[in-house]
Design goal:
2 copies of one chain form a homodimer. The longest helix of chain A is centred in the N-terminal third of the chain and has 15 residues. Chain A contains 6 helices and 4 strands. In chain A, a hairpin with a 5-residue loop joins strand 2 and strand 3. In chain A, 24% of the residues are buried. In chain A, strands 1-3-2 form a 3-stranded antiparallel β-sheet. With 136 residues, the first copy, chain A, is of the alpha+beta class. Chain A binds a DNA duplex (20 and 20 nucleotides) through helix 4.
Chain lengths: 136, 136
DNA sequence: CTGTATCCCGTACGATACTG
DNA sequence: CAGTATCGTACGGGATACAG
């Protein structure tokens, strides 16, 4: 990892750059932070598939959430670019929430996570390892 | 790959899971909890690629972590089946940490997350949406 | 209906000291 | 070297009341 030279973007388009364990971990951490909110995944899965829900519908779809938390998480997701908020200037107020294309694009990755987790449950139970063991 | 109406569950054979938005969200939440610890991703990326590190090496590789946190996160990851801990009954003590096969298997998914995040940065900046808008 | 504004609390995390 | 034990704190999140 001796990087005395900056290999600026000589790469033909797009290739991000070298990822050290440190920088990779930092990036993924930032990403996870975007998903970590107590209600964000619930919101995400309610909206996956292009669904359009208004605020009150989300409230009903996720009964345990409070208004404060719902709006807070929605706003964060909007700021992160995952959620789109459309205001209808009516009385009474009407606001619709959808996922952006980018938000939708998260679906396969979450699926991948689910598959990964599913694998563990078909695995043998590991034991304490002392010194030399044949375990994998 | 722009499927606007992607279903989250595949029903073909033996797959027991009908996934509602609720259950899917709950599952992914559990998975994220396994990765959410302040130092788990750092540990993961240090060990990716089959690397074997002893406790003190991890400490050095992740300078900001305290012993307490390092051991705590390692133990949780071990309990979750991602990390393997091998004890050498010597004096002085020696303990090596590696990822399990299952832990290693997380790598592609994290990569997928990185790619997903990278996409956003090539995207136009969204604006407030009022009533009808041509945005996506 | 769609939000704000307060207050409160548990816990995840940090700092530090000690031990086999 | 590889951990425990203890204490203190910041902050994410819940409950509730209020507002445009």
């Amino acid at each position: 990892m001796t990087r005395t030279h900056e290999k600026v973007s000589y790469a033909p388009e797009g290739k991000p750059a070298e990822l050290t364990p440190i920088s990779a971990a930092a990036r993924v951490e930032k990403i996870l932070k975007m998903l970590e909110g107590r209600w964000k995944l619930s919101i995400l899965f309610q909206l996956f598939g292009g669904k359009v829900l208004r605020f009150s519908e989300l409230e009903r779809a996720i009964p345990a959430v409070s208004q404060k938390m719902l709006i807070q998480q929605l706003r964060q997701m909007e700021a992160d670019g995952m959620v789109r908020r459309v205001i209808y200037p009516e009385v009474p107020p009407k606001v619709e929430y959808t996922l952006t294309r980018w938000g939708q694009a998260l679906c396969p990755t979450l699926d991948s996570l689910l598959k990964w987790a599913a694998v563990r449950d078909e695995l043998p139970v590991p034991a304490e390892s002392v010194a030399d063991d044949a375990g994998l």
